[in-house]
């Protein structure tokens, strides 16, 4: 069934196809975030203007894929959050998790602060500064467009509690020798319903 633009029912159906159940108020918040990306993030150069016509699939839905692997986490860091992709999306989808949006660049951190205020999102907080400057342990780290897999793991590992996970948005499955020896590869999750999306690589700290 086709829904008019801005109708939360379309987003609800798209999320369900990814195995993510949203309430209507969560879908409405994500639609507001989508609007903020178009109105503020794209003009500011935080998201590519070429992505405007495909913002939903390329960014919102792509980020939602990480919700299922994070369902049991109590807290996590979005490493190099940028425009809040995926940290803001996941904070909306998973109200039980507290998400720290780690961002070193002041202009991006200001956009994130404005976004959290506009969305009235109480379970996310902007964490300014470099990833290496933070040491409070968490259950999960999320890395999307952050760094190659070995570097992302090196940044995430000191932040993870024992058994904590890195959820890494990869362009392709990891190659032999690419998974660091001090990481446990828990899974490589493909998402056939999103043609442009690479796999999610999930690694745990021993």
Features:
206 residues; alpha/beta; Rossmann fold; 7-stranded mixed beta sheet; 6 helices; 22% strand
Question: Would you summarize the structure shown here?
Answer:
The chain has 206 residues and is an alpha/beta fold.
Structural account:
This protein is of the alpha/beta class and 206 residues long. The protein has a domain at 65-205: Vaccinia Virus protein VP39 (Rossmann fold, 3-Layer(aba) Sandwich), CATH 3.40.50.150. It contains six helices and seven strands. Helix 1 crosses helix 2 and helix 2 (24-41) packs antiparallel against helix 4.
What is the CATH top level name of the domain at 65-205?
A: Alpha Beta
- Rg, Cα atoms, Å: 16 Å
Strand order of the largest sheet: 3-2-1-4-5-7-6
Spans where pLDDT lies below 50 across 5 or more residues: none
Number of helices: 6
**Overall mean pLDDT score?**
93
Per-chain topology:
Blueprint: H1 8-17, H2 24-41, H3 55-64, E1 75-79, H4 87-93, E2 98-103, H5 106-119, E3 124-128, E4 138-143, H6 149-156, E5 160-169, E6 183-189, E7 200-205
Parallel strand pairs: 1-2, 1-4, 2-3, 4-5
Antiparallel strand pairs: 5-7, 6-7
Helix pairs in contact: 1-2, 2-4
């Amino acid at each position: 069934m086709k829904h008019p633009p801005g109708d939360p029912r379309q987003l609800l159906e798209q999320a369900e196809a990814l195995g993510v159940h949203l309430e209507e108020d969560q879908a409405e918040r994500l639609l507001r975030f989508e609007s903020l990306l178009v109105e503020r993030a794209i003009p500011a150069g935080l998201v590519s203007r070429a992505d405007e016509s495909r913002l939903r699939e390329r960014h919102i839905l792509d980020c939602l894929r990480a919700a299922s692997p994070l369902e049991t986490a109590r807290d996590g860091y979005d490493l190099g959050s940028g425009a809040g992709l995926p940290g803001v999306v996941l904070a909306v989808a998973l109200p039980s998790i507290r998400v720290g949006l780690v961002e070193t660049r002041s202009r991006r951190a200001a956009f994130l602060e404005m976004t959290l205020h506009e969305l009235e999102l109480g379970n996310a907080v902007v964490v300014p500064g470099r990833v290496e400057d933070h040491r409070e342990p968490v259950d999960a780290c999320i890395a999307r467009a952050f760094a190659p897999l070995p570097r992302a793991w090196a940044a995430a590992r000191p932040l993870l509690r024992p058994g904590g996970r890195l959820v890494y948005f990869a362009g392709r499955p990891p190659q032999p020798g690419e998974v660091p020896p001090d990481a446990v590869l828990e899974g490589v999750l493909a998402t056939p319903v999103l043609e442009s999306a690479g796999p999610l690589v999930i690694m745990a700290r021993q």
